[in-house]
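Quick illustration, no need to memorize.
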Amino acid sequence: MATINLQTQDQMLLQPVTAPGIPPLRHGDYLSREEFEHRYNEEYVTLDPDEDGILRSRLFPGLWLDAAALINGEMAKVLAALEEGLASSEHAAFVERLQRAKP
């Protein structure tokens, strides 16, 4: 598993994610499945659900998924968790940071 360099969220938003020795992608680049897997397989990090069974993204604040509901096909519950996350103060702060980072 890859080691993660913890940065501030603002730094993560402004820097492309690439593995060492792999050039960053540019707009319009195409990746085959093999290239995608080579490029990104080492960058996955397991995210465990919280005590409520919700997966809460650390990179995209407000992206909340009800893991059990997703596996069981209970899409209304999945959507409810997602909507709650998108209405959270963490997501509002994330959106504000993105808007400030626009050129």
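The CA atoms of residues 74 and 89 lie 26 Å apart.
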